TrEMBL record:
The keyword Zinc-finger does not apply. Residues 12-67 form the DUF6538 domain. Gene3D superfamilies: Intergrase catalytic core. It comes from the Bacteria. This is DUF6538 domain-containing protein. InterPro entries: DNA_brk_join_enz, DUF6538, Integrase-like_cat_sf. Keywords: DNA recombination. Coiled coil: none annotated. It holds the Pfam family DUF6538. GO terms for molecular function: DNA binding. The keyword RNA-binding does not apply. GO terms for biological process: DNA integration; DNA recombination.
Length: 487
């Protein structure tokens, strides 16, 4: 009785005491699987173990068929390689190039050979398990889309304009590489190609077209493209060779374009006029008030025009905005870095301006048109002040102002108000760890403290006057004592 055969149920049948897999080959795989039916011993007399072995076997079979199908249908090696890697995972193996297999563990090699023998000579497992797959021939021009795919989680919070700017880094790097070295498969890029690419950019730097910083960013973007290729296809680290590593060019003495991160601070008197609304008559209401809020509060203009409505808190006892990443919805946006996540207290002119736009700035939100339009307006109307006489940037370049210079003026305003470097970093959204030069411990300033810091540098309006700095310092001490601190 115990040796009788049983009917096939869910692909498993018993013959005598042993369980077998018995399934029909799906029509989808008829092109790559000559057998109409799979009959295979599960090599067990235990029904529970048979079910477990069946699940593993069916997964491996389907992975094998998919890999074969990809190899047949896809003229390139991309899908075939990915299918083969998935097949190896189904067999609990990873891809190891043949050269490493030969010099590696004998046990591992024997195990792979046994699995290959059991799978059949037509199986896609044969080249995958024995390490003789061809790497996918993905061209450089195809890689920006793959970089985006791999970075999906990192860029999920970017709005349309932020995403466009992010994409263009890799699109432009790939485009220039293709023009300089040809659009070739990433796996075929040589060190000579990387050097040619770097020399092209170095020549442009030496000719004064671009900065050293600009060049090294382009080299870094190409290095990231190569790394993304390796990650996409799970290529072993021993077979990863990124020829762009170590190719950064050095700054040259008296580089007239190197100091591109250094912006001039606008005169504080000029900024105070701006905050009062002077020189803004020709701008639309949104551009005008974005300019006022950013100039008064020391924020980046993009932090203001990208504000989602949900981060504007005008009814709070201490009116403020929250600068933070918003991951979902039409008003999502990504903040520059973690240090930039902060509340910004609104006082005086910035509070009045924000009250005129309680829902934010839809005309500019998620777009990149504000800076260009506002800088053009100020330059065409000759509103920017002349730089101090005799002031030249390194290399003799003419010093120029931009609307973004108001943030640099804010640094000066804080410095002359005698805010500590750490207090300034909190308001600016800069890294406290870098300021301290050590790990960050302790709490961050609450809204009450931030409001006092902000008031120290705020401009008066017709309806509001900031208190003297000495009085504000006394209030800070009072709050500290109230919380139990010694001052």
């Amino acid at each position: 009785m115990g040796n009788a055969n049983s009917a096939c149920v869910d692909g498993i049948e018993r013959r005598g005491r042993v369980y077998y897999m018995r399934i029909r080959v799906p029509k989808r795989y008829a092109e790559v699987e000559p057998r109409r039916e799979i009959n295979r011993s599960l090599k067990t007399c235990d029904q529970t173990e048979a079910r477990a072995r069946f699940a593993v076997a069916i997964k491996a079979l389907k992975a094998d068929w998919e890999a074969r199908l990809a190899r047949e249908e896809d003229g390139s090696t991309t899908n075939a390689f990915s299918g083969a890697i998935s097949l190896l995972e189904a067999w609990d193996m990873r891809y190891v190039p043949m050269q490493e297999l030969v010099h590696g563990s004998i046990t591992d090699l024997v195990t792979r050979i046994e699995k290959v023998v059991n799978s059949g000579v037509q199986s896609a497992l044969v080249p995958a398990a024995l390490g003789v797959l061809d790497y996918p021939k993905i061209k450089v021009s195809e890689m920006p889309a793959i970089v985006e795919e791999l970075k999906a989680a990192d860029i999920a919070s970017k709005n349309a304009n932020q995403l466009r700017e992010w994409r263009n880094k890799y699109i432009n790097a790939a485009k220039v590489f293709s023009e300089v070295c040809m659009d070739k498969p990433v796996c075929d890029i040589t060190e000579a190609d990387a050097m040619r690419f770097c020399k092209y950019w170095k020549a442009r730097r030496d000719g004064g077209e671009v900065t050293t910083n600009h060049v090294n960013k382009r080299i870094r973007f190409m290095g990231q493209i190569v790394d993304a290729y390796y990650w996409k296809f799970d290529i072993p680290k021993s077979h990863r060779k990124n020829p762009f590593i170590g190719q950064a060019i050095e700054k040259i003495a008296f580089d007239d374009r190197t100091n591109d991160g250094k912006k001039l601070a606008l005169p504080v008197v000029w900024v105070s006029r701006l905050v009062r609304g002077e020189m803004l008559e020709g701008l639309n209401d949104e551009a005008r008030d974005i300019t006022i809020i950013a100039a008064d509060s020391g924020t980046r203009q993009s932090e203001i025009y990208n504000l989602p409505e949900s981060d504007i808190h005008l009814d709070h006892p201490i009116p403020h905005i929250l600068l933070q990443t918003v991951r979902d919805g039409e008003q999502k946006r990504q903040i520059k870095n973690t240090a930039s996540f902060r509340p910004v207290v609104l006082l005086g002119a910035s509070l009045e301006a924000m009250r005129r736009h309680p829902r934010g700035f839809p005309r500019y939100r998620g777009k990149g048109s504000y800076s260009g339009a506002v800088n053009k307006y100020f330059r065409e109307n000759n509103y920017f002040p002349n730089p101090p006489e005799g002031l030249l940037l390194p290399g003799g370049l003419e010093a120029k102002f931009s609307i973004g210079s108001t943030r640099h003026t804010f640094e000066d305003r804080m410095r002359f108000a005698k805010l500590t470097n750490e207090e300034r970093a909190y308001l600016m959204g800069h890294s406290i760890g870098k300021v301290r030069g050590r790990p960050v411990y302790g709490s961050t300033p609450d809204l009450r403290l931030r409001a006092l810091y902000q008031e120290m540098v705020s401009f008066p309006t017709d309806t509001w006057e900031p208190r003297p700095i000495e009085a504000l310092r006394k209030e800070i001490d009072r709050l500290a004592k109230e919380s139990g601190f010694r001052v």
